[in-house]
Amino acid sequence: MKIDVYPTTTIGFRPTLTAVGTWLAKQKVAPNSQQFMETVLTREQAGSTSIGGGLMVPHYMQPGLSPARLVAVPIHAAESWPGLDGQPIRLLLITCFDPDQPQPAFQALLRGLASPTAAAKLVRQPDAGLAQALANLMTMEENNGTN
After folding, report:
1. Taking the model in full, what pTM does it have?
2. Has residue 140 got a pLDDT over 60?
């Protein structure tokens, strides 16, 4: 799985998704920003992926997408939209994957994020260390935190 970091100062969920979608289309991960945004928003309508503490984990599911990708989007805008707990969203962790394939790394990520301490550390993590911090979180979870 590939981990990317795409910092943004864009304000608002939809404009942020458009910016990330445009970037992912250039990377050949999504056909275009509109399809990316519509796919993510359709999933959000089924239930918010806001998990509290300024963190949100939206999903972009596309059959045949390989390798799976995690796009960390630190929000550096003066304002942000509120999560389910009312706190402003400061970090999106957008999971991009083929829904027909098993995703053990993403499952490990979600288990790791169940710890409020781990989630809070990620939200405060400087951009330069974010990809490594995410990789470490998934590796530690896969090894039950023993490494």
Report:
1. 0.89
2. no
